[in-house]
Amino acid sequence: MADESGAKRSPLLTPFNMIAGIIVLIGLIITAIRFTGGLAAVTNLSDNNPWGIWIGFDLLVGVALAAGGYVTSAAVYLFGMKRYHSAVRPAILTGFLGYALVVIALNYDVGRFWRLPYPFIMQQGTTSLLFEVAACVALYLTVLFLEFSPAALEWLGLKRLRNLIVKLTILLTIFGVILSTLHQSSLGALFLIAPSKLHPLWYSPYLPVYFFVTSIVAGLSMVIFESTLSGRYFGDKMDDVHKEEANHVALGFGKAASLVLAGYFIVKMVGISTANTWHYLNSGYGLWFLVEMLGFVALPCFLYAIGVRDKNVKLIKWTSALTVFGIILNRLNISLIAFNWHLPSSERYFPSLMEIGISVFLVTLGILAFRFIVTHMPIFYEHPDYTDAH
Amino acid sequence: MSISRRNFLTWIGAAGMGSVIPKAAKAATNKHFKGYEKSQGVLFDSVLCVGCRSCEAACNKVNELPIPDRPFTDKAVLDETRRPTSKAYTVVNKYPNQISKKETLYRKIQCNHCLEPACASVCFVKALKKTKEGPVVYDPSVCVGCRYCMIACPFEIPSYEYDKVFTPRVMKCTMCYPRIIDGKLPGCVEACPTEALTYGKRTDLLFIARERLRKFPHRYVQHIYGENEMGGTNWLHLSGVPFKQIGMREDLGITPAPQFTSGALSGVPIVAGLWPVLLLGIYAMSQRKEKIFKEEKEEALEFALKTANKKAEDKLSAALTEAEKTKEAAVQSAVKKALEEAAGSEPKEDS
Fold first, then answer.
1. Could you tell me which of A157, A263, B108, B171 has the fewest CB atoms within 10 Å of its CB?
2. Does any CB of chain B come closer than 8 Å to the CB of residue A205?
3. ipTM for the whole complex
4. For residue B241, what are the domain limits?
5. Which residue from B minimizes the CA distance to A175?
6. pLDDT (tens digit, 9 = 90+) per residue, B255-298?
7. Burial, B339: exposed, middle or buried (Cβ in 10 Å; 0-12, 13-18, 19+)?
């Protein structure tokens, strides 16, 4: 199969390649400015707004949307839902690339990137939730690398090493779920320290729970969303099993997402009730909160349910896009929009074009890496020499 | 700062989980930390402050900060509301007096040196530290520059050198830690011409503040800002008007910052400990279900096969008996027929 795709290689100057090329070029230029001119040269960060979209989008959204790896592998390997097996490799790949990009993005954001290992090798600030996040992300990136490696090793023909790692599947999956539970929730817990800065509708002692639960929703929805896009652009790379199972995956994951969203809606209401912050709903931020809760939690929950009842895979696919957008909105609300809400508008943050440029650049790198890997390695099909995976 | 090889290996061995436990658990006890005994602080009396900016100038000098564009004698600077920056650890702001119009109010802003600082509790490399002398100090040699301290600080104090490429630092007031260790006064306190700033042991400062509130009840709002705010701070404030009117938040509460995160932190080892049990349990259940399903399938198959066999056997034997019967009947009828024929032909022959 690899030979086939190599033989009919598409021309290099496609519109996609040209746009991607321009984005990468711009990204490299901004990278040069960032690392020669400092943060002030490219960002709108200030003393009152120390975290911008490189944290709000690249880290928080990046980690949430990369949750498909642990969600899918847990469903298939631990919960025994073998019908979704063909979804595991694309999900692990998306997760691995997502986390890799998060770590790259952090190099842009921190003041002295070469010191990123310092919390581990110099002094361990164990009272910080960021320490927990850093430790788990570092370990989980390793786990994802190992989980992804069989595909690469099959491509490289390293049979013995590949078989050895496949034997570790259950162990790696369990380790991955533990690490994901910890750092997905801890990303929400980062904001527990600042009740005086985050709007009361979003601040809650349950923030870690909310982040963990939404990471499950994000993982499920991203698997459906990614498989929709892959089906359209990489359909020729898929074997019959993958194509057949894709609809099962959409129906099954859509059902799960609907359920988890319903649970999330309930615990959000519990949070508002226990903090008794209902009166904030009658304000601009309250309206915005309702937009998030009704438009991007309740609505997708409902649409997923209808899609599953009617076996309407198309509706489920559109709903997955809506849900992914809702997750992005939620993370940006907590880290940027509802954060520092007490400050006058003149002191609020809005990302600079160059900050947005780097984020777009990194997402583009992810898509390019994804394309390279799925066109060369057995992601959407089973390697003929290794059909023991089922 | 450097760690021994053994420590490092221990940490790696614990895979990052075990090491979280001891420190995290400490925050969730019923002990009330009232600050280090004999820790020092400063009492700022905004009633006595005249907005001369001498403290700003002194701070700039003793901390060797860059000389600002506008001199410290320029009072026009006070027209804009400022916050501490990477080039100024302390600033004085002017506020209109809403009670008596002719008097202007001033407030000096700098790090309040919390008893249990949010910044130090969130630093993942322990670059910020609460000293037992009182000041919260910063070690730029380990700081990664994540700026979580700036997110965490409820007083919006730490600032960052965004313009530096390779050596950006978090910048904030140190209560002149190097000077007070030498027995000198903090720069700002030494320079204040109106004694709006008093340096001393925090417990003594609280006593002085209470005395002023008692002696001049009409001059002051009966509250010592920093006695309990965010669990208490080493820098204390007195004011003649509600603190809100001089730009200080009154909604911060009295909970020390580390308590906001202690619950989440204590959940970490619990998840690390119980999740393997839960997940292996689910795995075992799904495996068992599958095994039982397989066994049942085999049993059902066997049963189906058996019944099918039996049915076939029964059918066969039934068919055989039937065949036997037919055969017998055929023989009998043939015999009978033969006999009849014999009987019939005999008389014919006879006749």
1. A157
2. yes
3. 0.91
4. 32-256
5. B276
6. 999 999 999 999 999 999 999 999 999 999 999 998 999 999 99
7. exposed
